[in-house]
Amino acid sequence: MTAPKCTVGDLALFGGAPTFGEILHVGRPNLGDRARLMTRIDDILDRRWLTNDGRYVQELEGELQRRLGVKHCIATCNATIGLELAVRALELRGEVIVPSLTFVATAHVLQWQGITPVFCDVSPHTLTLDPERVEELVSPRTTGILAVHLWGRPADVDALVEIAERRRLGLLFDAAHAFACTTRRRMIGGFGDAEVFSFHATKFFNTFEGGAIATNDDGLARTLRLMRNFGFSDYDSVVSLGTNAKMSEVAAAMGLTGLESLDDFIAVNRRNYDAYRHGLEGVPGVEVLGYDEKEENNYQYVVLEIDREIAGIGRDDVMKVLWAENVRARRYFYPGCHRMEPYRSIRPGDGERLPVTERVLDRVLTLPTGTALGYDEVLRTCELIRFVVGHGSEIHRRLDRTGGAR
Ligand code: T4K
Asked: What's the pLDDT tens digit per position in 148-164?
């Protein structure tokens, strides 16, 4: 690490040395105990049972069921395919209401199956589906709602359950970010018809690639298990259409190992989050999105909201400065699904009914966290942001002159 910046000329963007020698990434994986993982992998190799509902996948599913307090957990090769299975098992078609403020997979799983994702605005308070807007978008073609617990901050489950029941709609939650989080003091996983978690490498708990569908519906679980394995009900008997959505044994071994360190991962995330909040307190126009402290959170996403008018510098310029200093902050989930293809071309006017979504997407920036990040690096990143905002107008002027390139 180099010395703190004293003048704007010290910024790497304008010729100074970068603050960090190595790149600080968002989404660096948390790793559990390596020796424990290797022992499990040795066992998998010794037994020559590598996939197809093996011992470790079954153990992981049991462990997840216990932790989430749900009757069924179906491990999958990733959350995208898990969501696709859930959408298909619920026989959703026509239109499904979904936020645009999410990773594009949420919309793609619908469009991929010929279902129209109807983008709905989010509440300015929760940044998740606004139930009133949902209600307005229900049409005769609507068959379901696919809500997202964005950044692990829960969607308004009570209101959405009420709408889904009254309107007879399927209700799924994309819980990709929300493993180990609670709402109404209940673990996320048991709401709606099913909830789908991602255990991708970038999630705070990972199985390299992977995911799981949680549900309390016995019939749905049975259908999902069949669909996960080509529709096989027995060795030679295929009873339905299916695909290959199975999780491998090595992935499950990674998951079981990660679960043993879950409390440590959360503690480190919590420490980093507190340090960011404290370190950025009072920086004008910069707010770290909060978590409900009455609930359990995984603190995996440290998201800044930058108000250009107050900060004197916009989100994109802050990001340019940080990247040059080797802090790879990310604009998750800019520009929003409705401004991505194919949706932008199919329905170019969708943005007009998504004012909150568009405002948020132009202001948010996700910062690195996790066990790969040192505490000092968090503190230095805060100093850097404080400096950048403190010198916002000068940086902005210089960027205007140079076109922003280094
Ligand atoms: N729904 C939501 C709301 C989601 O956020 C996601 C996935 C899904 C559904 C679908 O879940 P999966 O089907 O993936 O299980 C990444 C992840 O690939 C994606 O899983 C995740 N959301 C999304 C938020 O982040 P990208 O396009 O940002 O990935 P990439 O390659 O730019 O990597 C992100 C950062 O992580 C980089 O800074 C590098 C770092 N990284 C990444 C990997 C893979 C590492 O340090 N090590 C690694 O091994 O999508």
From this structure: 999 999 999 999 999 99
